[in-house]
Amino acid sequence: MKSILVAGGNSGIGRHVAAELARHGHRVVILGRDQGKGDEALASFGDAASHASFHAVDLSTHVGVRNAAQRVLRESDHFDALVHTTGVMTSEDLRTADGLHQVFAVNYLSRYHLTQLLMPALRRSEDGRVLMMTAHIPPTTRTSFENFPDFRPYDFLKARKPIQLANHYYAAHLTSTEPTIRAGVINAGVVKTDLLRMQSRLMRATGTVVAALFSGSVEKSAHNVIQATLRDDWAGALYWGKPGAFEGQTRIEVESPEMQRIMAISRELTGA
Question: How would you class 201 by CB atoms within 10 Å of its CB: exposed for 0-12, middle for 13-18, buried for 19 or more?
Answer without folding.
Answer: exposed
